[in-house]
Amino acid sequence: MDLQGQAALVTGGGGGLGAGTARALAARGAKVTVLDVNEAGAQAVADEIGGLALACDVTSADSAEAAVARAREAHGAARILVNCAGIAPAERIVGKTGPMPLENFRRVIDINLIGTFNLIRLAAADMAGLEPDAEGQRGVIVSTASVAAFEGQIGQAAYAASKGAVHSLTIVAAREFARTGIRVCTIAPGLFGTPMLLGMPQEVQDSLAAQVPFPSRFGTPDEYARLVLSIVDNPMLNGETIRLDGAIRMGAR
């Protein structure tokens, strides 16, 4: 799909993978709306790329609907959606102080899974009304899972459950939207240099990076964004979750 002049939505675009994706899409000529609960972060990225920044709580129907509507007014209906909003807290199902509070599990599911579904439903509804391109495509949706969807570690019950569900949602959405020419893929990153990992002590970062077979380092937001662009470019990529992890397979701990 030719991105020149096309509208794109990026959730979690105020930092990390989302910011890298917003920059890459804008560099290819897309009109990017940066959605994030962190308004200052979203605005900084939007100012850098000449895009639009909007506050958006992906867990809220009202907030997401309002943000998508404002983006549509500014740029037209989006042909590209990239879901990068997410959190990754670590907590055991039963810890030293007892069982995980149910609200803690629910919060991760709300942001990582329901937030992803919330934007998919809204963006796909708009895409369905667009004119198809020369290959019959009306839009492309890319979500973010994690290698934890397949090899969740101890302490990742909520995170792994949410990302496993995003993976499962991918083929269902791709099949449903096939008749309208909307493709759906998911990227499952391994260890990436996002603020969460880069905030850890250097010795912890080094230990984690050494677990990646090759290249033995954290991935970068730019590398994630390059895969997003490849998905957009290749019309046969559909219904797939693609691991982007340097061949890492996570252990139990």
TrEMBL record:
Source superkingdom: Bacteria
What is the annotated signal peptide range for this record?
none
Q: Where is the Ketoreductase domain?
A: 6-190
> What does the record give under GO molecular function?
oxidoreductase activity
Gene3D superfamilies in the record, alphabetically?
NAD(P)-binding Rossmann-like Domain (3.40.50.720)
InterPro entries attached to this UniProt entry: KR_dom, NAD(P)-bd_dom_sf, Sc_DH/Rdtase_CS, SDR_fam
Q: Name one Pfam family in it.
A: adh_short
Q: Which UniProt keywords apply?
A: Oxidoreductase
SUPFAM superfamilies tied to this protein: NAD(P)-binding Rossmann-fold domains
Which protein family is named in the record? Belongs to the short-chain dehydrogenases/reductases (SDR) family.
What is the name attached to this protein's record?
3-hydroxy-2-methylbutyryl-CoA dehydrogenase
